[in-house]
Amino acid sequence: MKKVLMVFICLLITGISESQINWLRNFDAAKSIAAKSKKLIVIDFWASWCGPCTRMDRELWNSPELDESAENFVALKIDVDGDKNTVSQYGVRGIPKVMIITSGGEVIWEKDGYDNIQSFLPVLKAIPGNVGDLNRKSLIAIESRKDYEANYLAGLEYQRVGKEIKERDLKDSFLSSSSRYFSRAGNLCKDKTRVLEIELAMVLNDVYNNHYQKALKQIEKMDPAPENESTEELRHFILALCYKGISDKENYQREKQLVKKPEFLAEL
Predict the structure, then answer these.
(1) What is the C-alpha to C-alpha distance for residues 12 and 6, in angstroms, rounded to an integer?
(2) Which residue has the higher pLDDT, 112 or 17?
């Protein structure tokens, strides 16, 4: 009994010394766990002979700063010499390579090589912990690429999550994914009013990325003809956000007065 206990303790200590993250090694298992736990997956493509990979393990993955944030994602190590299918699927040409993907396998963020801990740590610490709806809606959209509604809803969910992220690089990745889904939905939709709604939603991504002047110019170019009450209020909401962003108090107050929806007012 004592011998078994000693072996267990040795294994535990070895595991801690090698990594403070609970790494999975099977891609399908990681996707299943991510779906059930409502998390994203962080993939570390590596190899035992890769010097920068060893340095990354030592400096990044074993960093105490990452301990708490590691609970927000499923960690997956892919040995490029052992899992050729996953390497080929994601077109990995060099290592180390880190990806953040959904439980359905869609890439949200990726970075090649390793220079220092700060080029990864802020992004990893900013990963949202509960993304069950995003995982589900993005998977539905992937499986229903010709479905306007599925793509639109996926775009909205990426936008909802992305706008709350503070880290610049990861925020941009989420909002870019949102715009790609909106663009696909717009190409599939034939209703002019819904198309305008999609176009406004894409402009809103620019606003959330603090591109206020760009958003204002895009709205100026839009055809007002197919507007209805819903799209009109969305337009006023976006304009109010833009004017607030550029500190134009007069125009901000004017547009805000035309906004009635509680969720829009709460954001303003």
Answers:
(1) 10
(2) 112
Q: What is the pLDDT of residues 215-228, one digit of tens each?
A: 999 998 887 655 68
pLDDT at site 140: 97
Domain 2-125, classified CATH 3.30.70.20, yes or no: no
Q: At what angle do helices 148-162 and 192-208 cross, to 10 degrees?
A: 20
**Domain assignments of the chain as residue spans, ordered by start:** 2-125, 132-267
Region of 259 please: left (phi>0), alpha (psi -120 to 50) or beta. Answer: beta
Q: What is the pTM of this model?
A: 0.89
What residues act catalytically? 50, 53
Cβ contacts of 225 within 8 Å, gap of 6 or more: 192
Structure tokens that stand for 69 in this block: 């944030």
Which residues have CB under 8 Å from 244's CB, separation 6+? 252, 268
CB 229 within 8 A of CB 193: no
- Cβ(169)–Cβ(123) below 8 Å: yes
Q: What pLDDT is attached to residue 174?
A: 98
Looking at the DSSP bridge assignments, the partners of residue 43 are 76, 99
Q: What pLDDT is attached to residue 67?
A: 85
Distance CA(56)–CA(262), nearest Å, equals: 46
Only one residue has tokens 């990864």, namely 120
Q: Are strands 107-112 and 97-101 parallel, antiparallel or unpaired?
A: antiparallel
DSSP string, 163-227: TT--SHHHHHHHHHHHHHHHHHHHHH---HHHHHHHHHHHHHHHHHTT-HHHHHHHHHHS--TT-
